[in-house]
Amino acid sequence: MYRQEIRHQTADELYGVPENFLEIEVCNPMTHGIGRKMYTDYEIICRTNIPAFKLKHSSVRRRYSEFEQFRDILERESSRVTLPSLPGKVFTNRFSDEVIEHRREGLERFLQIVSGHPLLQTGSKCLCAFIQDPQLVSLQLVSSTSHC
């Protein structure tokens, strides 16, 4: 009978930075405007050491309509990837705390799945720009011209 040796993990192995990590958080919803011009945007915080992303830490704000545009472009770019759905459109009480929180959770879940997908990390022209570029004007422009 042989004896198996037990090896304890080092502090670096337990608490060090993982080889590859990606943290995406959708938080701090803010409602802007008055009357028919009201809208809510959400902060996207990204922390990563994955080389496909240009910045190790970033923070941008995006509206729901920008998430819709982003998903449409991803769908055209990546026919081999099944994308998760966005939280549904809301037509009544869309600025209530409950609706905004439900939407925030759905947007976070969507982004975590999409940004963690290896084919999208390396093949999408707009993934990094959407998550990390605060000056993003048009996803259509990013999608048609250059890789993030």
From TrEMBL:
GO molecular function ontology, one term from the record: phosphatidylinositol-3-phosphate binding
Recorded GO CC terms: early endosome membrane; Golgi membrane; retromer complex
Gene3D superfamilies in the record: Phox-like domain
Keywords: Cytoplasm, Golgi apparatus, Lipid-binding, Membrane, Protein transport, Transport
The organism's taxonomic lineage, starting at the top: Eukaryota, Fungi, Dikarya, Ascomycota, Taphrinomycotina
Organism this protein belongs to: Protomyces lactucae-debilis
Spans through the membrane: none
Protein name: Sorting nexin-3
PANTHER family: RE52028P
Main function: Required for retention of late Golgi membrane proteins. Component of the retrieval machinery that functions by direct interaction with the cytosolic tails of certain TGN membrane proteins during the sorting/budding process at the prevacuolar compartment. Binds phosphatidylinositol 3-phosphate (PtdIns(P3)).
Nuclease among keywords: no
Top-level division of the source organism's lineage: Eukaryota
Major subcellular site: cytoplasm
Location relative to the cell: Cytoplasm; Golgi apparatus membrane; Prevacuolar compartment membrane
InterPro entries reported in the protein's UniProt record: PX_dom (IPR001683), PX_dom_sf (IPR036871), PX_Grd19_PX (IPR042138), Sorting_Nexin (IPR051074)
GO biological process, one term: endocytic recycling
Signal peptide: none
Family label: Belongs to the sorting nexin family.
Membrane topology: Peripheral membrane protein
Record-annotated PX domain positions: 20-137
